[in-house]
Amino acid sequence: MKLSLAAVAAVLLGATACGGSSPSTGSTTPIQLGMIQPITSQSSLVAKTGINGATLAMNEINGSGGINGRKINLTIEDDHGDATTGVNALETLTTQVKADAVVGPNFTAVALATLPKVDQAKIPWMPAALAPQLTQQGSPWVFRIRPTTVAQALGLADYVGKTLKPASVSIMSSTDDYGTSGHDAIVKELAKYNIKAVSDQTYVVNSTDFTAQAKRIVDSNSAANIWFGFGEAAAAKFVSQLRALGYKGQLVGDNDYNDQTVINLVPKDLEGAIGITNFMPNNDIPRVKKFDDAYNKAYSSDPDGYAAAFYDAVNLLAQCWKQTGTDKTKVRDCLHGIKSYQGVSITFNFNAGTGDPGTSEVITQYTNGKLKVLTVTT
Amino acid sequence: MGFFLQVLVGGLAVGALYGAVALGFVLMWNSASVVNFGQGDLVMIGGFFGYTLVGILHLPYAIGIPGALMGSFVLGILMHRIVIVPAGRAPMFAIIIITLGVAIMLQQAALYIWGAASVRLPGIAGDESINVGGVILQRQDLVVFIASFLMVATLETFFARTLTGKAMRAVAQDPDTALLMGIPGTRMVSISFGLSASMAALAGVLLAPITYVVWNEGLSITLLAFAGAVLGGFGSLRGAFVGSLIIGVIVTFASAYVNANFALPVAFGVLVVVLLVRPAGIFRSAWA
């Protein structure tokens, strides 16, 4: 009987430690953080950088004593870039690992399939998927950690309308979700500045030839061309064909125009091109520089937007865990209160209640073999 | 008129790219009766071989191209010996699945060795374009067109005039009789795989300045090149080239005059119509 009482007491103590705990319990049980990434998919490299970012944040937090004495334990599940596997990954993290929060996945299709399970598990969830509809389902548990494609498109169109003020523009976009949503946002935003595209071209993802579209753009004599399309190789090929056909206007584009792969492929053709991104490594902002240095020291490479976003996600969760403990509802409410959190990727504002983090953009220009920052907006 | 001509030139250039790849399909079919769905990935690996020799080691094309062809020849033979020979006389669908499996392995190997980013090579005849009466021609497009034409002529001569070429055709058509005639079937098919991989490598190096090289490019190339080979008449080398040119022109014109979204449906629609009217394709196989 005595032994049984001890066992019951131990179980109760264990349950207290594993369940939601307040900041002052003094528990040393690790906080369980789950992560879902497309480790074995076409986006495996992005998965790697995302994991690096989260791991770096975890190591920094654990190295400085953890969260009120508790270490963070990161458990990573592979979704293969597949919706069903992603749902199973969340199931594993919530039921077996007993995660206190989950970061990732990255693909919209995986995230949308996972969302009902998140609501069922009532767990703070920070996906990196970009499609707008993810935060339009009314879930209070979603905290997207990267700005949507639409936010980037709006930022780009705003820069064109407010700063560049070209006499005329042409647009080139891909026909997938990414390109279509970006295109529509650009057209709508440009209308505010009374700018209408004189040539509006599209291409199908994986196209290898843009002769027809490029020729129409050249013939339109537009002063600037706005690119919003999927695929670095496509962007490089388009720029190359556009210049070969004699286009002299200003090139403006999404984050392909400051992507190192595109720069490596067509450095001459990209000269003078203006691009937009949410995260720019090696810039002069002290907190970003500190993150860059730490990341480079740990992984001997520059971080990308995913590394920065997941680094921020873990730090945001850590801030809330410090304030409220690991009670999931309290953490959710804490995240909803996040305002003007200066991350290394963007400035987070979850207080609007939409689950979107707000946005911040860095406008860049590629000149003389280097990317220079034109403006940073937060 | 200027727009029409520019689109036509663009379509022919794209078609020549598909043609360079389609020749590998036909070579493999004519010499081994195998449809190799890893052909696009052999193009990719060949492109990376060329990139390693020319882009990284800065060797001239005169060394880079033969080097890439030799490397791919060995790879093709290894592919045959390691995964095809053990399958014995498995049905065609099993061989197709095996080649798809090899394709995935090649992709992952390329991702591991060369990374995820696209890379390119400088144009063999320079990167400048040529203006002919207002129509812009890319030098590399001309190189691909001429090289593909030469590949057709060389391969047709090889299969029609040389003893090895005739032996390969014999093995493809009837391996048992060929063996009775003293033709070493397995060795011939190994050489076929090697040659086909070399053709793929040549296409890969020729395409690298235009479509670049990336680990997962194989399938997109394979699909349209295969369509070109079928349209031309599967088994005919010149048919594969002409069929690919037609596919390239249709895709580009559909994109220009209809809608980018309809380019592939229009191309495959034409393919279906042609095959309904002429099931053996535009050119019947020279050996059929």
Helix/strand layout:
The complex is a heterodimer of chains A (378) and B (288).
Chain A: H1 2-18, E1 31-37, H2 44-63, E2 72-78, H3 83-96, E3 101-103, H4 108-121, E4 125-126, H5 149-164, E5 169-174, H6 177-191, E6 197-203, H7 211-220, E7 224-228, H8 232-244, E8 250-253, H9 260-265, E9 274-277, H10 286-299, H11 305-324, H12 328-336, E10 341-342, E11 347-348, E12 361-367, E13 370-377
Helix pairs in contact in A: 2-11, 3-4, 5-6, 11-12
Chain B: H1 2-32, H2 39-56, H3 61-84, H4 92-114, E1 129-132, E2 135-138, H5 139-161, H6 163-173, H7 175-180, H8 185-207, H9 218-232, H10 237-257, H11 263-277
Antiparallel strand pairs in B: 1-2
Average pLDDT reading of chain B: 89
Alpha-beta content class of chain B:
mainly alpha
Identify the overall geometry of chain B: globular
Level of helix content of chain A?
Answer: 40-55%
Instruction: Using the CA coordinates, give the radius of gyration of chain A.
Output: 23 Å
Strand order of the largest sheet of chain B: 1-2
Give the low-confidence spans of chain A.
1-20
Helicity range of chain B: over 70%
Mean pLDDT of chain A: 89
Which terms would index this structure?
heterodimer, A: 378 residues, alpha/beta, seven-stranded mixed beta sheet, four-stranded parallel beta sheet, 12 helices, 44% helix, 17% strand, elongated, disordered N terminus, B: 288 residues, mainly alpha, two-stranded antiparallel sheet, 2 strands, 3% strand
Question: What do you see in this structure?
Answer:
The complex is a heterodimer of chains A (378) and B (288). By secondary structure, chain A is α/β, with parallel strands linked by helices. In chain A, 44% of the residues lie in helices and 17% in strands. Chain A has helices at 2-18, 44-63, 83-96, 108-121, 149-164, 177-191, 211-220, 232-244, 260-265, 286-299, 305-324, 328-336, and strands at residues 31-37, 72-78, 101-103, 125-126, 169-174, 197-203, 224-228, 250-253, 274-277, 341-342, 347-348, 361-367, 370-377. In chain A, helix 3 (83-96) runs parallel beside helix 4 (108-121). Chain A is elongated, with a radius of gyration of 23 Å. Chain A starts with a helix and ends with a strand. With 288 residues, chain B is mainly α. Helices cover 73% and strands 3% of the residues of chain B. Chain B has a two-stranded antiparallel sheet with strand order 1-2. The longest helix of chain B has 31 residues, at 2-32. Chain B starts with a helix and ends in an 11-residue tail after the last helix. The model of chain B has no long low-confidence stretch (mean pLDDT 89). The chains are: A alpha/beta (378), B mainly alpha (288). At the A-B interface, strand 6, helix 7, helix 8 and helix 9 of A face helix 1 and helix 10 of B.
